[in-house]
Amino acid sequence: MQLTHQINVELVAGYPYNLDFDYGALTQLQHFSINNLGDPFIESNYGVHSRQFEVGVLDWFARLWEIEKDEYWGYITNCGTEGNLHGILVGREVFPDGVLYASKESHYSIFKAARMYRMECEKVETLITGEIDCADFKAKLLLHKDKPAIINANIGTTVKGAVDDLDLVIKTLEDCGFSHSRFYIHCDGALFGLMMPFVKLAPKVTFKKPIGSVSVSGHKFVGCPMPCGVQLTRLKHINALASNVEYLASRDATIMGSRNGHAPLFLWYTLNRKGYKGFQKEVRKCLRNAHYLKDRLRDAGISAMLNELSSTVVLERPHDEEFVRRWQLACERNMAHVIVMPSVGIEKLDDFLDELIQGRAIWYKDDIVKPPCLAVDLGAQNCTCVLHK
């Protein structure tokens, strides 16, 4: 069982987990029950906590996303979905009658938030790249000009790794007559929210722009061994959400009451060990390897697409489900994707490509079954099926 588990871990290609980590220095922490209760910035009665480290992590991301220490509030979430649930909830509390706008390729947790909070939600069309179609966004905004707008902006979509054009989203809002006091933007940066600041010439996600919150996952690019995330919002928004809890001797504005106190320690350890330069080096490696994979797929006659600001390579869905399970690929319709993380090097990509090419030679050898057409999903220029070669 242990050997099988190890093989499965080594072949993770379709999910955004950075398995290149070593937390041996922190193993003794498993002897403690560490629970961060209530507000990270306010003392509670529970003594075994890591709030100082939690605030240290938050300060690190506040510098990354350019917001002053006395202007932000945040906490370490238990997962990326919780960050999205919190960001959308803050938007809803700021604008109780606001309409939620999210592209159809947004993470499912955004639409879960809409259901949980009973929000009116407009699902916006996307471009072939997967980013939000601002022409359709404008049309839907104009349908609800009398109501404030709550927007989810994707900093890397789940399937295609597409980055919504934040500047164009803001301009579209302004063109439709929405002043900055009538919209709230939550940025879902689950994977790429940490990568994009280190991509040369990439547009900035920053609180110097009129955004309301940003969330990022800690178990993805950072490489934390347990699910967790970071959620930052403007301090001025949080009073609408916070309530005093006598039982904790603190106040609470989080989604979950108890929070994993180990996660801030692991995050703080990695952020300080690698630093900005370390993450920049890893981001460059991932983007370089993603281009390598995309080029080799295309050279082999396999449909593939790679967005400019992404390490997510989208390709045709393998015909054999055993191959999909072996490489732990995430699939949607005729698409699969490989997310190139720091732990996915050239050697692993070559192994994947060799197995895929060998498999295709068997799956499609008699011409009865043909490779899927991906023109609708990826554009004719990225499709190599019999109709679009």
UniProtKB/TrEMBL annotation:
Catalytic reactions on record: L-serine + H(+) = ethanolamine + CO2
GO molecular function: carboxy-lyase activity; pyridoxal phosphate binding
Top-rank taxon, per record: Eukaryota
Keywords from the UniProt entry: Decarboxylase, Lyase, Pyridoxal phosphate
Pfam families: Pyridoxal_deC
Co-factor requirement: pyridoxal 5'-phosphate
A single GO BP: carboxylic acid metabolic process
N6-(pyridoxal phosphate)lysine, modified sites: K220
Family: Belongs to the group II decarboxylase family.
Protein name as catalogued: Serine decarboxylase
Naturally occurring in which organism (per UniProt): Lithospermum erythrorhizon (Purple gromwell)
Biological classification of the source: Eukaryota, Viridiplantae, Streptophyta, Embryophyta, Tracheophyta
